[in-house]
UniProtKB/TrEMBL annotation:
This is Homoserine O-acetyltransferase. The keyword Transport does not apply. The gene is metA. It catalyses: L-homoserine + acetyl-CoA = O-acetyl-L-homoserine + CoA. The keyword Cytoplasm applies. It comes from the Bacteria.
């Protein structure tokens, strides 16, 4: 939340120069406050786990958030009970005439498919196009980020020789970005994907900035300069055991997966992983809600 200080306080210029958001009494008195309307387009098969992860990081601020959960009408979920979808989810048709302050588009385990081969790609493309007019700021995660970069800017994805899985360090390249306020030089985040997008392709669009990148994991965070479109290739929202559960699932399926990098102590799957990225995930989403949504979106 912003720091409310007198306009002429000497510390004001210093704080503003450091990117700290400060507010005068005049502006504070004129502010109207209402709940932020956030839509979550949940493409993950384990919808209930993803709901919990995202709501946990969204709850890291004092802002009141009103969440609408969406699922694809053109795809039948095999892993989520129909009763759950009926009780808690809407489809795009239900909200197409509405406006949202923010939206989160999750990933999906379909990275190896060409975008046009995904059974719900026509609906996905329609939603991505709609979001540019009906949503003030949208976060796209993992496959959702790749899909949006491809749809909006023609950025291709590339299949990796083996799955990128683990917890990685990412260098903050744009510390002045409101998304990265309060971050140290290194941002820790889990990655879990079979495909990659290249920094050079993103920067060649001339419309998207790379904000954080890892030596071993590539681009983590990118955004348009106006912060209306945010792209996260990894999973700052993951729980402690999410990578482990994915590893066990792949192993049981006979996929012979590599151990998630930098995850198990001494690479021993019998030991509990340390949760080293939660603070970064909470801060990233708090910055998004505050600086990209709350402080910028019109009251109406």
């Amino acid at each position: 939340m912003p720091v409310n200080i007198p306009r002429d306080l000497p510390a004001r210029a210093t704080l503003e120069g450091e990117g700290i958001f400060v507010m005068s009494d005049e502006r504070a008195r004129s502010q109207d406050i209402r709940p932020m309307r956030i839509a979550i387009l949940n493409l993950m098969p384990t919808k209930e786990a993803t709901e919990t992860q995202l709501l946990r990081v969204l709850g890291g601020t004092p802002l009141q958030v009103e969440v609408s959960l969406l699922h694809m009408a053109s795809h039948s979920s095999r892993n989520t009970p129909p009763e759950h979808l009926e009780a808690f989810y809407a489809t795009f048709a239900d909200v197409a005439d509405q406006y949202f302050d923010g939206m989160i588009v999750t990933g999906a385990p379909i990275e190896r498919l060409e975008f046009e081969d995904v059974d719900y790609w026509p609906e996905m493309a329609q939603i991505l196009d709609w979001s540019r007019e009906h949503v003030y700021s949208t976060i796209h995660i993992c496959w959702g980020a790749q899909a949006a970069l491809y749809r909006h800017y023609g950025v291709p994805k590339y299949e990796l020789p083996q799955k990128l899985s683990g917890v990685f360090d990412h260098r903050v390249r744009r510390p002045e970005s409101p998304l990265l306020r309060g971050f140290d030089d290194v941002l820790v985040a889990p990655q879990s994907r079979h495909t990659d997008v290249h920094a050079a392709d993103i920067e060649a669009t001339g419309a998207v900035d790379v904000l954080a990148i890892g030596d071993d994991s590539g681009v983590l965070l990118a955004a348009t300069p106006d912060l209306r479109q945010v792209f996260i290739t990894g999973h700052p929202e993951y729980d402690r055991d999410t990578l482990g559960r994915e590893y066990q699932r792949d192993a049981e399926a006979g996929m012979d997966p590599a151990l998630p990098a930098n995850y198990y102590p001494e690479d021993d799957p019998s030991r509990e992983p340390a949760l080293t990225w939660r603070s970064h995930g909470v801060l990233l989403y708090a910055n998004w809600l505050n600086h990209c949504v709350y402080q910028r979106v019109p009251f109406e």
